[in-house]
Amino acid sequence: MIKRLLAATSIATLCLVSGASAAEKVEMWVRTGVGDAFKKTVEAYNSSHENQVAMTEVPFSELVQKYATAIAGGQAPDALSMDLIYNPAFAAAGQLEDLTDWAKSLPYFNSLSPSHVKLGTYQDRIYGLPLSVETSVFAWNKDLYKKAGLDPEKAPASWDEITANAEKIRALGDDTYGFYFSGGGCGGCMIFTFTPLVWGSGTDILSADGKTATLDTPEMRKAVDIYRNMVKKDLVPAGAASDNGANFLSFTNGKIGQQSLGAFAIGSLVTEHPDIHFGVTLIPGATGGTSSFAGGDNFVITKGTPKMDAVKEFLEYIYSEDGQKIMAKYGSLPTRGDIAGKVLEGLDPRLQVGIQAISVAKTPYTLQFNDLINSANGPWATFTNAAILGEDVDGAFSNAQSEMQSIIDSGQ
Questions:
Q1: Are strands 361-362 and 290-301 parallel, antiparallel or unpaired?
Q2: Mean pLDDT for each consecutive 10-residue tract of the chain (412 residues)?
Q3: CB contact burial 89-113 (16+ within 10 A = b; e otherwise)
Q4: In Å, how far from its chain's centre is CA 349?
Q5: What percentage of the chain's residues is helix, strand, coil (to nearest 5)?
Q6: What value, to the nearest 5°, has the Cα angle with vertex 369 and ends 405 and 297?
Q7: Which region holds residue 288: left if phi is over 0, alpha if psi is between -120 and 50, else beta?
Q8: When you count CB atoms within 10 A of the terminal residue's CB, does the N or C end of the chain come out lower?
């Protein structure tokens, strides 16, 4: 009705009204802890554009449920920064805008983080695009390497080498350990740091279509043996067995020789722990190759929002060189591979390993990620804890394989 009334006004008035009405306020939710990268990008966008973005932080543990509730009640924001693992489920439920044609028209589409685009795709249509990219990498403490008689500049290239290095570091005595992992039922920690051992070796824990659990493989058995061996040899602190993720960054205490971490830790180490001299490399596979977990968030748009053009404008700003530089300056890896080198100019060169990881990184594609993997009592968390730290390895494999398949089947 308003548009019809405007059509009857003078051209001069129409131009004025159109100019005024062109400004949109995009309501966008993000998870708490999103950090300065996205906040600073929003500030820069708002200071240079007529359209504005109103960002609301929602507790991470509540975001998915709150978004689902808001959609059901017709109160959802225009856009959301969503942990990419949940993208398939919301797309399958028909709650997100189909971005396929627009996304593929972007000249840099093919350079966007492939795992993020894959998780944003459902039945060959795109419902989410990468916003923030995180990868897992392997870090070593150069000072502890040196003290243990190891070459501090030589990145370990296999788990045999990592284990041997861990033994020499542990031999330094006291509370110095060769390796660390958060194993106490922290499914999110272990999918992030442990699964690359399997992916790098050419196998996976789920079939490509996500409908079959493929946990029990020779490669997974080998990966479990690697970790069990380090635990048995006392190369890992006892606290790892009960760590639910609270001490995930134990590497920062200077007493851990080696640990698989997130690329985000590079910035934290540089700014908050400048006394720790460290190197980073790709995580080796259990039987060869390298891999990484692609984490972070996808940018999704709520189905039916009347502000599509404004939301797209904002996302295109994030993808611009200026937007990418702001994100990178405050700790987020570039989502565009074609300008990653330029974006990271002047920043810590170790971030380049995080970029290299994107090309070999994977993320499990399933509509039931939380039940299968993230849940503290789910089959993945239970499996890694039991298989690596328990006595009955065969039982751990059998139980987890069966339970994962049951959860998958119940969701079909």
A1: parallel
A2: 30 36 88 82 97 94 93 96 94 97 98 96 97 95 98 98 98 97 90 97 94 96 98 97 93 97 89 94 97 95 97 98 93 92 93 93 93 93 96 97 96 76
A3: bbbeeebbbebeebbeebeeeebbb
A4: 20
A5: 50, 20, 35
A6: 160
A7: left
A8: N
